[in-house]
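Translate sequence into structure tokens.
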Amino acid sequence: MKYKNITFSIALIVLAINAQAQKDKIYHKGWIDFNKNGKMDVFEDASKPIDSRVKDLLSQMNLNEKTCQTATLYGYGRVLKDEMPTAEWKTQIWKDGIANIDEELNSLPYNKKAVTQYSFPFSKHANAINTVQKWFVEETRLGIPVDFTNEGIHGLCHDRATPFPAPINIGTTWNKDLVYRAGSTVGREAKALGYTNVYAPILDVARDQRWGRVVECYAEDPFLIAELGKQMTLGIQNQGVAATLKHYAVYSVPKGGRDGQARTDPHVAPRELHQMFLYPFRRVIQEAKPMGVMSSYNDWDGEPVTSSHYFLTELLRKQYGFTGYVVSDSEAVEFIASKHHVANDYKEGIKQAIDAGLNVRTHFTMPENFILPLRELVKEGKVTMKTLDERVADVLRVKFKLGLFDSPYVNDPAAADKKVHTTADEELAVQLNRESMVLLKNDKNILPLNVKQYKNILVTGPLAAETNYTTSRYGPSNNPIVSILDGIKAYASKSANVSYSKGCDVIDATWPESEIITTPLTSEEQAQINEAVAAANKADIVIAVVGETDNQVGESKSRTSLNLPGRQLLLLQALYATGKPVVMVMVNGRPLTINWENRYLPAILQAGFPGPSAGTVVAETLFGDNNPGGKLTMTYPKSIGQIELNFPFKPGSQAGQSKSDDPNGTGKTRVLGALYPFGYGLSYTTFEFANLKLSAQEIHPQGDINITVDVKNTGTRKGDQVVQLYLKDVVSSVTTYESVLRGFERVSLAPGETKTVKFTLKPSDLALLDKNMKWTVEPGKFEVMIGNSSEDIKLKKEFVVK
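Result follows.
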């Protein structure tokens, strides 16, 4: 019996060796025999055109294999239960392949189920991805490689990857070169770790300050978003991975800024749809050629985007020239029936989505929930094989472009340890944080603080020791974090006594109801404030760190008020009453209505949502090592009653109540004007503009015009100025915006230094959608304006289109 067992074991080993030998035979010099037929097929031949390779592979695929290329398998800890391939995988639906695997083995933040031994060291993850990829190449009939997708809107969503600040902070840098370098870092790290597709950038135009995902957007202005989004996309894709734009389209303005299940019904007119909300997508698709687009789960004008042939085919592919594949936002297909009620059931919703132009369905459920009904639809003749072939071809084309059929594995897994989150990467991340700081107020130049002048410094406020805003569901995790309190201590404790008193919590027990029905302070809350006041009385200066955390702003976290939440204003007022100077540091993911704070406190620094180096950077900025040069990318309203209040805007839509605003009668019934306008931001130095020059006084409709302007640092400190170019179409056939942003450049200047900044306006910068909804450059007068912000214009000149 013992002899028989030994013989049987040897036989199993021999079979395993032979099986592996058979698999190894598919690897040849210069090509891989994916379909294991012993010859080089067209799709396996790297010298053949991609379209020929797609056509050849498609001709060899059966229905099961085709439909498997239309779905996402969420990675370990989300849907996938196994860290590594198991024997059971041969019985799963992905035995016939899969389009992509999302967030595989990344140790997803805030999800303990996704924590894995394979996320770090980085080389271990690269090897693990290779193991998973190898299973698909070797164990499926046609060996079609997987596209490994992952989030990456402010650094790759992976354990200990390089962490950048939130997108709203990336926007406030107004630094195209820095954003390109950030994109390149995300792309390089993705490639090294085995990811082939990054879900970034977000091109949503954030027009409602109450909306929860404002923190994940660059700006309220489509031109600024397009310029930064283009650089992020180019940076990612120049590293050999795909960038997938999101969320297409009109996603960022649900009715009333409401979030969660209520992300529907954007009240957007057709011309505004194209000029405002689709503008960044059109430009980035045409100028950066992204390989992916994510379809959103909202509707527009009663039609769900994910089941809209107009959005997914007419606009995206025919007008914009998109050649990649469209992946749905999670549950977007299900919502066609369950939320929008334009389909009788989920299966009919699948038909609508596939017919409209969707390529790949994504949701946090097993992929067969989509694949099996789709197979039924094809067999029933309700979805044609021609349509299915077109959808699958788009997915395969991206995989060929990514080189997955020529080199499906990470070539040098060990190199990942040297390519991910390097010292240079960390320096770049810190620089992004530095350049995102926005100085909102600085009476009597109280900032920067002279560390030798203040012997006793109180740091207070609920955000002083908090750190949860430095990471997010869509960014890197497990990096060391410096709180603002610790950053100030590290900077100043050698010269001053730095004390701390929390003062209050971020929110009170009844928040958000306490925003509409005031509740009295509890004895504990009063004691906390009293303790901070007592500490302030002993201090020479107070640094109050207030605002929001990741629990008050983010996905599904819209608000009905924009004041500082909880008891924070009461804390600030109590500190102010001590007579000690109070410097406010605001940690915020959206504009806040800080009216009292702006009127009475001498200095306000917007930190936004910086990354893990938050404390170090805020301290550097407060004490002058970093001169803040960031500019706001969203209008700050004084009240939620003013919303919508944005840049750009149509003539008269944000007018006052004076005689000149309304000749039919004046009034005094509402608060007017922005608290801080779009493009606003102060500095510790001063600048002036001069010598605005245009290359021509008259141009033809298809001509360019070159513009130069000198900017000089007239102060005593080195600093950055963002030169902003605005354009006004004086008379047009349809109503246009009062002015539009059409150029910007961040310039670093030493004291007394002057630089000449150059801009080129192209026909597309002058174009409008005419009465026939055609992009047209109309004859007439245009005004070029150079300024510090959208409201602080310093120089103007005109030219005429003949």
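Note: The CA atoms of residues 136 and 143 lie 6 Å apart.
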